[in-house]
Amino acid sequence: HAQLTVFPNSLPGHLHFLNISFNDVKSIPLLHEQKLTTLVLCHNAIDVILRGTFNRLNDLHTLDFSHNRLSSLDADDLDGLESLQFLSLEGNSLRNLAPYAFHRTPNLKMLRLSNNPLKFIDATWFRNLDVLESLEVRSIDAHSITDNAFSLATRLESIDLSDNDFVDIPRGLGSARNLKILRMDQNPLVKLDSSSMSGVRRLRELYLSQMPQLEAIEDGSFWYMKALRVVEISGNPLLKVVSASAFQWNTSPILRMELANNSLSTLPEGFVEWCGKGKLDLGGNPWSCNCETSWIKRCRSTEGLMCSSPPRLAGRSLDEVDVSEMTCPLSRTLLLQFENT
């Protein structure tokens, strides 16, 4: 915040940490601070990395280059950063990453490329990234991923694809064989079905929130996902249907399920498996308080759950409604009894 326009000419010897963020620096010279371990250059106006800039920063493990003006990255721009573990390039103007753009950073564990107009993910970017664990590619205008996109990133465990243009779970995610955490919030998915998760059965955490077009979670959507522990599907204004057969109830290991702030008026009774242990968040939905949802009263906490129908219960807290008031027409009651036999 010193309103710098040029990179400092003189720096203390044996410097380990350097932060010149939130200035108007437009270029960086060849750096000779060999002891640097952390370099923060975010929120400047740097539009190019000169060849050899980082050649002597052999100990650098953290480089924050976010929110600058880079439009491209060449294969040798990061030469000298063999010890780098964290790299942020988010919020630049990157349209072109050269093949093998990160091959000079073999120890990189976290890579942030979000908020760049990249439009696609190229498998060659991950050449020599054998220990990469986390990739963030939010808001890059991507709508598809090639089948082998992550085949070179053999230790990749976490991918954030939020705020892109995917209309389904990309098949190319299957090439990330050790993927455990997937974030796909704010994508235009319309539904999940039995084929949606076929390439990511080993996930432990799944985040599918703030999706403006998601309407239904159909039969078999989460079958065979034996490692799944956390599911967050919240803030989806059109989501009204979650199938009773979306999960395999007897084998599901889920520890936390969030279905808050959707448009759910009813939910299959199988979800009681989670709510009894405080694992289920159902707040902010327009519940129909009748015989189909009376099981929710058995949850550990129903605080904040509100009835939207029938008219005689609309606006009342589910906490205050007695199970005896949650009735259905006789024909509906008989149908539910038939379905449960």
Automatic annotation (TrEMBL):
SUPFAM superfamilies: L domain-like. Keywords: Leucine-rich repeat, Repeat, Signal. SMART domains: LRR_TYP, LRRCT. Residues 285-329 form the LRRCT domain. PROSITE patterns: LRR (PS51450). It comes from the Eukaryota. Pfam families: LRR_8. InterPro entries: Cys-rich_flank_reg_C, Leu-rich_rpt, Leu-rich_rpt_typical-subtyp, LRR_dom_sf, LRR_TM_domain-containing. This is Secreted protein, putative. It comes from Ixodes scapularis (Black-legged tick). The lineage of its organism: Eukaryota, Metazoa, Ecdysozoa, Arthropoda, Chelicerata. The gene is 8034840.
